Amino acid sequence: MLHDVTRHVLDNGLVVLLKEVHSAPIISWRVFYRVGSRNEQTGQTGISHWVEHMMFKGTPRFPAGELDKEIERNGGTWNAQTSFDYTAYFETLPADRIQLALEIEADRMVNAIFDAEETESERTVIISERQGSENSPFFWLSEEVQAMAFRVHPYHHTIIGDMADLHTITQADLYNHYRRHYVPNNAIAVAVGDFDSAQMLDQINAHYGQIPAGASAAPVLREEPPQTGERRVDVRRPGSVPILEVLYRAPAVSHPDWFKLAALDSILGGPSGPGGGNIDNKTSRLYRGLIETGVAAAAYGNLEMTKDPFGYGLVVVVREGSSLEAAEAALDRVLEELQTRPITQAELDKAKKQARAAFAYATEGASGQAHWLGFAEMLDHYTLFTEFVQRLEAVTLEDVQAVAAQYFDPTQRTVGRFIPVEATDDDE
């Protein structure tokens, strides 16, 4: 059951979430830190992601490269990710080997090595990673739209960071960022799998309970001011097809309207939340209004789950023979029809069914459940995960129509257009 979750807080402030799942002899262990691109200052964009890379460079106890061998030898997997609002590390192992995961994350919470030579080596890797992203027109367009939509809030910059900062961030910057944020009172630990909760809590206390708490993290105070009109940006770069991206302002996931927008998102383009990319959207309004009419080769929505207000994005890939102007007009018609051709109960019921299916797909295993438990607690509270389906089911037709009228306001959107141009020698 999703509700069989216990929440504990150690004396040093570490939040611990435990959920027993005895269907298979495995355990997934995750440690989330409340630090992502949202917590970065101008001049240090991308630093959270870079610190994530450095956490795999070893400790005195576990030298670089040894942990890969240890995890593989014990039949497990491990990885990490950085997002707008968090950085997370995970291991999934056979249940009788989970001690290794507990030891790894406790050790590198305190003892990660930020070697000068490794720092420079990783600088090259991360710059190459950004350059790889720059091969995609979607990256260039999304970065410009995001920067235009957020002028004050740190959501202004991408998670990978600005190239200028990737060239200038220092070893000391990285280490100071690590020491400031990688403390137990800024972390959430999650275990899901085949264990006894009392015994697991004892093990966690033994490994993490003696790590001292750090200073409280500085709050993010740069609230985005109200938008006073539509913003537009064109990106002209080499590419094969024109792309339209429209970002409407949307609330944080903790806001009551978020689930109403999630239902509307499912009606428009199929669910884009947990697991949404696995659900067919051929009966959605975007598909019928843009793809079936021959205007677009692809069209979809993206409702972000974020700690602070972010946005609801709509992306249209223009079909050959059509135009950006036609795509924008067709998208506007789809959104206007939410008022002139109101959503039916049958549409809402189908949207809820698809969203439930997507959520079930994303959370069927121990690893998926561990991720979403920690993610929910980090954004708001773990009940965001355990009550996801119930909150979605509570959305009414009136709710969906209300948010459609409120949030699809043309004065509250940022419109980006990717316009392909011929490549030059400098682009190659």
Strand neighbour order, sheet with most strands: 1-2-6-3-5-4
- From the spread of the alpha carbons, the general shape counts as globular
Number of strands: 11
CATH topology of the largest domain: Cytochrome Bc1 Complex, Chain A, domain 1
Beta percentage is 15-25%
Please count the helical segments.
16
Largest sheet: 6 strands, mixed
Uncertain stretches of 5 or more adjacent residues: none
Average predicted confidence as pLDDT: 94
Structural commentary:
With 428 residues, the chain is of the alpha+beta class. The chain folds into two domains: 5-208, Cytochrome Bc1 Complex, Chain A, domain 1; 231-427, 2-Layer Sandwich (Cytochrome Bc1 Complex, Chain A, domain 1), CATH 3.30.830.10. The chain is 42% helix and 19% strand. It has helices spanning 47-54, 66-73, 98-111, 116-133, 137-149, 163-168, 171-181, 197-208, 257-269, 285-291, 324-340, 345-362, 366-379, 383-386, 388-393, 397-407; strands spanning 5-9, 15-20, 26-33, 77-82, 87-94, 187-193, 231-238, 243-250, 296-303, 310-318, 413-421. It has a six-stranded mixed beta sheet with strand order 1-2-6-3-5-4, sandwiched between helices. The chain has a five-stranded mixed beta sheet with strand order 7-11-8-10-9, with helices on both faces. β1 and β2 (15-20) form a beta hairpin. The protein is globular, with a radius of gyration of 23 Å. The model has no long low-confidence stretch (mean pLDDT 94).
